[in-house]
Design a protein that fits this description.
By secondary structure, this protein is an alpha/beta fold. It is built from 9 helices and 14 strands. A hairpin with a 4-residue loop joins strand 9 and strand 10. It binds adenosine-5'-diphosphate and magnesium ion.
């Protein structure tokens, strides 16, 4: 065990498919990666649970991952974790600079107008994104919200294994943080971030000048796997393996599962994702007037799906950057990750400035 309780920071991204944990140490202004792990919850023939992960699956698995990393939950002092999914929302506003107390009370009132989350009780917080370059006496403020229920459920998962909840972020911001610390944002135009998980894709748009925007798209890795299962009559495990090694057009015999004939008009999962992205970008252009998109930044477990980058760059005529969050960390251990992109949110969490 490495002097836990000292200055080690832990970032936990409790996903729907995999649990991602990053452990770093702050050395001056830099972060040094000490350990990390990405651990899939559905192995051994169980099919991915789109409603999950249930507490009975997630909590013991998280405990197992921490034990494998040599971490004792009770001794963790600097923890950051995140909540994702439909139950979070974010909206950028421009506000005059205020003291922290003024900011808290006025913005939280403001937030209730801007971010209605299905009528249930919401919790709101904010993060200053920086100066407003258009109106110099103002700052860019990002309001974030989640439901009290989602927030408490998340804390409950952590407390169950005696982890003391620390900073709790929303997943889109965790991903953004992983990127902006060392990568340049464009002065003109905006970047499109796609964080492609198992169940959903988080699309965010961000640049130095223009409004931050994020939306959850209902397409993710499981839909690609389901498509392979349907078209080739495969079991879940096999479809996952083929997806990772061959992509969506594998060289195996097509064998449509019974009752699931592929209608000619049916769009592929990739096309559905493309259409969702298109719709969100049109909305962004309409809302902000900004239509200069510089490139895509891909993260999340499904970012490296074979053929995805080509599809996106052809459809939108934009360059693609697969973003490896480890690149901005120092490390004494070799990082031989098969899929480093999956670790983006965990790394974004662990390098937050204010932990
Ligand atoms: N090499 C790969 N190629 C394609 N898909 C992958 C690859 N590695 C992982 N995935 C997919 O990524 C998804 C998990 O992504 P992740 O970001 O961890 O999701 P979540 O955050 O919801 O747990 C799964 O659908 C998995 O099949
Ligand atoms: Mg995720």
């Amino acid at each position: 065990m490495f002097g836990l309780g000292s200055n080690l920071r832990i970032g936990i991204d409790l996903g729907t498919h995999s649990i991602k944990v990053a452990v770093v140490e702050k050395v001056g202004p830099r972060f040094r990666l000490i350990k990390w792990k990405c651990s899939e919850m559905y192995t051994g023939g169980e099919k991915y649970d789109p409603e999950g992960p249930k507490k009975s699956v997630a909590v013991p698995h998280l405990m197992k991952v921490l034990t494998e990393l040599g971490l004792q939950p009770r001794k963790v002092k600097h923890l950051a974790s995140c909540i994702g999914g439909q139950l979070v929302a974010a909206k950028e506003i421009s506000s005059i600079m205020q003291t922290e107390i003024e900011m808290a009370s006025s913005l939280l009132l403001e937030a209730r107008k801007h971010i209605p989350l299905d009528g249930s009780e919401t919790i709101v917080d904010y993060q200053i994104l920086g100066d407003d370059v258009k109106e110099t006496d103002k700052v860019r403020v990002l309001l974030v919200a989640t439901t009290r229920k989602a927030f408490e459920t998340h804390q409950d998962y952590l407390r169950e294994i005696e982890l003391k909840p620390g900073i709790i972020d929303i997943e889109p911001l965790a991903v953004l943080n992983a990127y902006v610390v060392h990568s340049q944002l464009p002065d003109d135009g905006v970047i499109i971030f796609l964080h492609i998980g198992a169940k959903r894709t988080i699309l965010s748009v961000f640049g130095r000048r223009d409004m931050f925007f994020t939306r959850d798209l209902p397409v993710g890795g499981m839909h690609f796997t389901d498509e392979l299962m349907r078209n080739f009559g495969l079991e879940y495990d096999e479809a996952e393996r083929i997806k990772k090694t061959q992509g969506m057009n594998p060289s195996i015999e097509r064998k449509t599962a019974e009752g699931a004939g592929l209608g000619l008009a049916e769009r592929t999962t990739l096309e559905k994702l493309g259409d969702e992205i298109n719709r969100s970008l049109r909305y962004y252009v309409k809302e902000t007037g900004q239509s200069v998109f510089t490139h895509f930044v891909l993260t999340g477990g499904s970012a490296m799906l074979i053929g995805l980058d080509t599809y996106l760059s052809n459809k939108f005529n934009l360059p693609i950057e697969l973003y490896n969050p480890f690149n901005q960390l120092d490390s004494r251990i070799p990082i031989d990750a098969d899929n480093p992109y999956q670790m983006a949110a965990a790394v974004g969490l662990v390098i937050r400035g204010d932990m």
